[in-house]
Amino acid sequence: MDSTLLFYNLNKYSRISEADFSLVSNVLTKRFVRKKRALINQGEICRYLYFVEKGSLRSYSIGKEGSEHVLQLVIEDNWIADLSSFITQTPGNLTVEAIEDSEVLLLPYSAIDELCEKLPKLETYFRKLYQRAYVSMQQRYNAVQSSQAKERYEILIRDNPQFAARIPLIHIASYLGITAESLSRIRKQVVNVNI
Q1: Which of 80, 112, 182, 195 to pair with 22, CA 20 to 30 A apart?
Q2: Is 147 helix (H, G, I), strand (E, B) or coil?
Q3: Residues 4-119, CATH architecture
Q4: Contacts of 98 (CB under 8 A, 6+ apart)
Q5: Are 78 and 52 in contact (CB under 8 A)?
Q6: In the chain, where do the E strands start and end?
């Protein structure tokens, strides 16, 4: 299995040799996911971390009123999962769904402890990955509480320029905690300013 993108991703936060990476590769499964198909549904136990090799995905919950609340948007070279469900191995609150036709690598929960025992550098990688996920979630929460929607959109697109062309407006709006109509107005303001 050619997992070059994952190899480079692992080496962002740790130093994994090609020999060590072969141990990781042996437990991975590649999966093709069609647009609008779920890898996991709300209420199921998340048994894998999903690494995106190609495409885009989102995680979301469905509120009591029936509306979707997008928690995470990812494209290639990123991980996605219902992390709370994955860590606790209990039924989760999120659905993970493909936005585009996608290719993902599945890393099973059952293999992580053994891999980390054999490869301490991998444990370092996941510790840093989880820390970054926590910091990102906290920053997002703080931004929703203290920043204007326009500022949140500008930061999102600055940090993830491909989102504007690849992620549907409705998902970006939900991620930002605003309506699609509000986001449409904000995008027009941003475009007019940049002309």
Answers
A1: 80
A2: coil
A3: Sandwich (2.60)
A4: 33, 34, 35, 36, 37, 38, 39, 55, 56, 57
A5: yes
A6: 29-33, 38-40, 48-54, 56-62, 68-75, 78-80, 95-98, 102-108
CA 62 to the chain's CA centroid: 17
User: Which residue is associated with the tokens 């370092």?
Assistant: 124
**Which tokens in the block code for residue 44?**
């199921």
Quick: pLDDT tens for 59-79.
999 988 888 999 999 999 999
65 to each of 19, 68, 120, 173, how far by Cα in Å? 50, 9, 45, 17
Question: CB under 8 Å to 41, separation ≥6 — which residues?
Answer: 95
Amino acid symbol at 26: N
- Identify the DSSP state of 45: B
**pLDDT at residue 10 above 50?**
yes
Residue with tokens 């996911």: 33
